[in-house]
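User: Assemble these into one structure.

Assistant: Restating your components, then the assembled model:
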Amino acid sequence: MSAQTDPADLPGVTKEQGRPQDGAGTSRLPGPRAGRGGKDGAPAGATSSEGKVLNVFSHGVLVIWGLLVTMPLLWAVVSSFKDDTEIFGSPWGLPSVLHFDNWSRAWDKANMGQYFLNSLIVVGGSLIGTMLLGAMAAYVLARFDFPGNRFVYFLFVGGMGFPVILALVPLFFVMKNMALLDTYHGLILVYIAYSLPFTVFFLSGFFKTLPTSVAEAALIDGASHTRTFFQVMLPMAKPGLISVGIFNFLGQWNQYLLPTVLNVGDPDKKMLTQGLVALAVSQGYKGDWSGLFAGLTIAMLPVLAAYIIFQRQVVAGLTAGALK
Amino acid sequence: MKHGKYRFIAGFLVLPLAIYAIFVISPFLQAIYYSFTDWTGLSPDMKMVGFDNYARLFTDDVFWSAVGNSVTLLLLLPVVTLSLGLFFAFMLNVGGRRRKKAVIGGVRGSGTYKILYFFPQVLSVPIVALLFQFAYNPESGALNAFFKAIGLDNVQPDWLGDPQIALWCVMAAMVWANVGFYVVLFSAGMSSIPKDFYEAALLDGANRFNTFFRITLPLLWDTVQTGWIYMGILALDVSAFAFVQIMSVGPGGPDYSTEVLPLYVYQKTFRDGQAGYATAIGVSLLIVTLIFSAIVMRLGRRERLEF
């Protein structure tokens, strides 16, 4: 798989990005090549030696960055199998015995299992809510003319660029008054609210690109607006929904600021990200470094595994917003 | 029909708008109001104090070191991250050996590189921050152990404990976490640039480094600009908060050398019980953000006129 084929694979929005390159592909055949007959042996030789040097150099720097990225991750995984003396004594050494007990200790005693479940519950709820409400708002804003349409749109989209921390101070007290602090449903509502700006921005752009004729046909056949939306438009918008769904899933799963402020009352209700940081703080007293590395690895591996399996979709989902 | 349409619109908008208004819009507006009060956050009593909170900012040394550090991150983080991203993406796309039909080509295995580089992007900030915190640990961390192993026994910095370099250590972790995303993003942009542009330039005698500045960068400028805004917001807001709060001593230390604006807002509210003053700091963060976005937009517009 080479770099050139990538953008065309990205579903949805990147379609336009993929186009010009198809044109480039065809021009590769006869055109510019015709003028460069047999005589250009010398210049071609010069550039090809330049090309060789460049090739070695580029592989060199690319490998170095590849090592810089993977070494810390491998180091954490390897450390999670060591005992504490090995971690301190030989940070780069391999474990003499595989200490699987670190993992079970982190999972049970350090509550990583519980935190994992908490994150699953909250993100499960908020992802469904974000996609449903975001798609509904985006569809109405993209497809219907009504007074105040632009105002509502910019109200949503404006939320993307403002510092979240500013809103969090009053939000804490709003949640407190509504008895939503330290609850799953409170967190779900807040996750939805802070995911809406990007979701509405992205999906309304996507709905605008879909053909109008299909929805019109459904309406003429007697379907209601609601039914048209759920049975005709949503299925058509699937590529966009998948992209923004992956974006939101990772964003919400990795969310740290919101739970740090709004979910501090009950230690058993911590999200995975919070739990990991709490584990890091408490190991300072207990000195359980191996358990901490195991916790870190437990948090890290499922996401990496999911990324490797759905690699293409994840990349498309995360870069979709910036390529638009 | 018409009636049905408006009922449908209202029905679809009411729930998302209500949630958004309650949890995002209203807290923002309240924050601006609170910045003119002496609210502690602990009790409901407060009174208007006009611009007192803002006047107090001018004499608050911690605030100014937070501004300094936030602006340092804002200026350097996007430049370093995007430059590395562009550099690696360019290497991936034109660093390859000459093939028969194409003048320039990607390096072999570019797909694998991109998969690896993207790893940090899917990990949460706490994972990355803790990983680096361990690596920086002066006694058992990977970095000092590495220095020892290659014979540099005297070079054993305190990393996050040294006020001179603590901020750079945090920034290195942020760069590490974000470069891969831009490699993949720019790489997708570069491969959509028609090959005959390069072909023509190389025939005219340009070398590959010229083609980067004359062809690749100008044609990618829109994407670079978007990335710049993303990275700027990341350097000012949520991400900077999380990295500094988890990694640094204190947090914010040593000696306020890593204090950043979002962390200071958080500490003033939840540690010191000065919610009114904290929102004034938050409003100044908002102002920095708006100035930054305006500058990047303006720069972008000028660049685009040249082509």
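Chain A touches chain B through 120 residues (CB under 8 Å).
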